[in-house]
Amino acid sequence: MRWLAFLTVMAVLSAGCSDKGTGTSSTQPAAGGRPRIALSMKSRQNPFFARMAEGAELKAKELGVDLELLATDKETDTEKQTSQIETVISKGVDVILMTPVDSKAIVAPLLQAQARGIKIINIDNRIDQQAAEQAGLKIEAFIGPDNVDGARKSTRAMIEKIGKEGGKIAMIEGVRGADNAEQRKEGFNQAVAQAKRDGYNIEVVAMDTGEWMTEPAQKKMEGILNQHPDLKGVFCANDMMALGAIQAIASAGKTGQIVVTAYDNLEAAQEAIKAGKLYATIEQHPNFMGQLGVDYAVRLLKGEQIPAIVEVPTDLVTAAELLPAPATAPAN
Amino acid sequence: MAINSSFSRYRQLILTLVGVYAAMTVLSGINTHGQPFRPSSWTFDLPRFLLEEKRTTGPDGLVQVTRHLNTYNQKKILEQAAINLTLGVGMTFVILTGGIDLSVGAMLALCNVIFVRMLLRDGGGGTLEASTVLAGLGACAAAGTICGAANGWLSVALQIPSFIVTLGTLLILRGLAYWVSGGQTYLRFCPESLTNAIPIGISVVAVLAGTVFLATTATGRRIYAVGGNRQASEYAGIRTGRVRILCFAFSGLCAGLAGMIFWSRTSTGSYTAGEGAELYAIAAVVLGGTRLAGGEGSIGGTFIGALIMAVLANGLNTAAVHELTQKIIVGCVLIVAAYIDSRRGRSSMTLVV
């Protein structure tokens, strides 16, 4: 135990030595003037964020940026994300790229960051605008997928695959109240309304939440199938939940009889599409979002103008057009 | 009763805390320049856990870089410890009697939601009146105490092990929190003056109140007795059921106050608040040397245990260690601490009722 005490004394001494009294002065910032950017993500277990991080790291290397990746180990842990933001504030980064766990709860810690001169760019899950405005939080830019459009495309593909005779369809939603979950629900509703106008004889019999996760979604799907054995199609608001729905459908012996579409284009979903268990999913290019985030952060630091809102287009992925995700960002 | 050996026990805990603090300071100075944790990419930089740099441009155009103690981070460590600490104080009471309370995280969520709903009764706009906050505080405390007392009553009167009772109420209370909140996140900004005052104030008061209560009151001594040997205490005329219910009620009170701290940290009320918090609270208690079987332990130990965990979490965050690697490290520290504690033996701890 003594050596630990010794270490502390050394650490404190080193703090004392270099305190303001001696004031080491230099013309060069310590980190060689590299911009410091933090990317705070919801979780890294979800491959969506892993790809976002990949894109951001690629761009950071190219532009010579010190990039720090942060993530919570649970997608609902708002307190942990608050602590992580406090930590990057204390370390003093220049820009925070933020994908909030909770679009309201993140406003208060970001205000602290703003007060210390850190700029904020919002990625993916949009920060609650009313809350941000009320608190006087300035968000430099929002880079996110067009969730409504993506959900519309995915739902439309499912309905068209069922055909004009239609039948019962369902949706498995994400965490209720989360912005992107609500937007995907909106996209689903729009697609259903449009399809009805186009003469598709469909009926929505169930809308329930699978909380973005595989296992809860599987249980919900089992419940839906129990009540509606003649279900024709289901749209899942993300791939993780679709994997659960597929499992439920398989165990009910209905694989191939129910059209499943999803959202996110994870590798597992691509495998499911190739195996014919999943009909379609939506590619939202999370790596572009990561790249754009870093790119815009650097431009912002140079004093350039950046657009306030960038909606990264989504693409429908089916067996026909199953291509590996493009590796580079489009020219913006 | 005498806990006269407590200083030697604390000395070890304090040394551990100091050691973790030093290790985090060193670790936070390792700069990997955004690269994965590979030794070849290491350089030593400012230990940001402890220090911060301020850059000012002097009149001669030169950039002055000065280093200061990172007071912001030191303050934040205390704030980040507050929820775990407050829950841990209540948990210590329950564990001292030989029980366990798994429902504190869910109680936190319920009280958190109730609290923010109370704050929103004025419509949500305008400045927050002190009376509104106090009314919310009262509601939090009352709701928490009632839930806690219910835990205790179920465990004592129906003779169900507290592990099972609180496992049940964990689910019930989390569900209730969902219904009270309607599944949405409530937002009411915490005024800047309270963001420090609430977490630090409440947790310090909880620690002091708990310590004084255990050390000086007759009921405090009875808590140790009940945990040490329930049957013997009963023969000695202690109403053990009452003591146990009291401890659960106190744990509930602490969880209710932790719900208020959660608001001060995030400005929100949400049914997902404090998921898994019970496990970290138990970890802080055990790290602090309280015996899970009951009868032995102290609030002071829990206090240091919670600080060790907060320092560890903050330092690992500062060093940008992957969140799952963090879990591995925290788990290892827990097991090593428990091992050291078990090797010390329990003979040095005298317990006289």
Report on the architecture of this protein.
The complex is a heterodimer of chains A (332) and B (353). By secondary structure, chain A is an alpha/beta fold. Chain A contains 11 helices and 12 strands. Chain A folds into 2 domains: 32-139 and 286-312, Rossmann fold (3-Layer(aba) Sandwich), CATH 3.40.50; 147-283, Response regulator (Rossmann fold), CATH 3.40.50.2300. In chain A, the strands form 3 sheets. Chain A has a 6-stranded parallel sheet, sandwiched between helices. A 4-stranded parallel sheet of chain A has the order 7-6-8-9, sandwiched between helices. In chain A, strands 10-12 form a two-stranded antiparallel ribbon. In chain A, helix 3 (78-91) packs parallel to helix 4 (107-115) and helix 6 packs across helix 7 (179-197). The termini of chain A are far apart. Chain B starts with 5 loop residues before the first helix and ends in a 9-residue tail after the last helix. In chain B, the strands form 3 sheets. In chain B, strands 1-2 form a two-stranded antiparallel ribbon. Chain B has a two-stranded antiparallel sheet with strand order 3-4. A two-stranded antiparallel ribbon of chain B has the order 5-6. In chain B, helix 4 (130-157) packs antiparallel against helix 5 (162-181), helix 4 runs antiparallel to helix 9 (240-266) and helix 6 packs across helix 7 (218-228). Chain B has helices spanning 6-28, 71-96, 104-119, 130-157, 162-181, 192-216, 218-228, 230-235, 240-266, 277-287, 299-318, 323-344, and strands spanning 30-31, 43-44, 51-57, 63-69, 186-187, 268-269. The radius of gyration of chain B is 22 Å and the shape is globular. Chain B has a single domain (72-344), classed as ABC transporter involved in vitamin B12 uptake, BtuC (Orthogonal Bundle). With 353 residues, chain B is mainly alpha-helical. The relative contact order of chain B is 0.19. Chains A and B meet through helix 1, strand 2, helix 3, helix 4 and helix 5 of A and helix 1, strand 3, strand 4, helix 2 and helix 9 of B.
